[in-house]
Design brief:
Elements lengths: L1 E10 L2 E11 L4 E5 L6 H8 L7 E6 L2 E2 L4 H6 L1 E4 L11 H11 L8 H13 L15 H13 L5 E5 L7 H16 L3 E5 L3 H7 L2 E6 L2 E6 L1 H7 L7 H9 L7 H6 L1
Parallel strand pairs: 3-8, 3-9, 6-7, 7-8
Antiparallel strand pairs: 1-2, 1-4, 4-5, 9-10
Helix pairs in contact: 3-5
């Protein structure tokens, strides 16, 4: 469960996120959308404890991220938009390192080793487990980051652009994994620019613009907010955010 209560993030005179209140329930896949610079990544970094809110409260499964940071983060899995990983580790060493951060891998642990092996095999990188990460492609590094986020079985999963660099098979596997993970009572919040993914995968969707939540609800509720009956998420998104090109394509191509 994720709760944001009046969360804002300011940098001097600039407000990146303004008075954001949102609740994502257990068992839900929630899509978090917005144009570039809307405040999505800032919000996700606050959820992950990387950035401190200027005001407001963030609760992860009832634990205040500022007052109980260790307990809150123990329940969190975070998948960033860029797979920055220390390259001189092997994939297997990286997973052991991540498990160690949560106090899980102390010496030999057959259960955790089997879990790690299953996650690597799920994304077809098991054969690379003992290779240095510096030899991994961008997509392989992304898969490794994803495996690490699931390793400690977090009850809250926060994801920033998860499909970047993934091949179609892995992207489909990840979408199915998110749905199954939520079905088991966990909370998944996904930020993505791929509107088709959000529409097909998410139970509810929130649209943020200029740091403010413009709309939130199911597809039917978003259609009602956008005063349209049959449009897909792309058209709804453009109507709610006003993110249409300022010049016609003909003007640009004929110039």
């Amino acid at each position: 469960m994720i709760t944001l209560d009046g969360v804002s993030k300011r940098y001097g005179d600039f407000t990146a996120v303004r008075d954001l209140s949102l609740h994502v329930a257990a068992g839900e896949v929630f899509g978090f959308l917005g144009p570039n610079g809307a405040g999505k990544t800032t919000t996700l970094r606050m959820l992950a404890g990387i950035l401190r809110p200027s005001s407001g409260r963030i609760l992860l499964n009832g634990h205040d991220l500022l007052e109980e940071p260790t307990e809150a983060k123990r329940r969190l899995g975070f998948i960033p938009d860029r797979p920055f990983v220390y390259e001189k580790l092997t994939g297997w060493e990286y997973l052991r390192f991540v498990a160690g951060l949560y106090g899980l891998w102390k010496g030999t642990d057959p259960v955790l080793e089997r879990r790690a092996a299953e996650l690597l095999a799920l994304f077809d990188i098991d054969d690379w487990r003992h290779e240095l990460i510096e030899s991994y492609s961008h997509g392989m590094r992304q898969k490794l980051i994803i495996a690490g986020a699931f390793l400690h079985r977090p009850s809250v999963l926060v994801v920033d652009e998860p499909m970047v660099g993934l091949d179609p098979k892995s992207a489909r596997t990840l979408k199915d994994l998110f749905r199954e993970y939520a079905r088991r009572g966990n909370t998944v919040l996904v930020s993505t620019h791929t509107l088709e993914v959000a529409e097909s995968m998410c139970d509810r969707i929130g649209i943020i613009q200029a740091g403010t939540l413009r709309a939130c609800g199911t597809m039917d509720e978003l259609r009602a907010d956008a005063v349209t009956s049959g449009d897909g998420l792309e058209e709804i998104f453009l109507r709610l955010t006003g993110e249409r090109p300022s010049r016609s394509l003909a003007e640009v191509l004929d110039a």
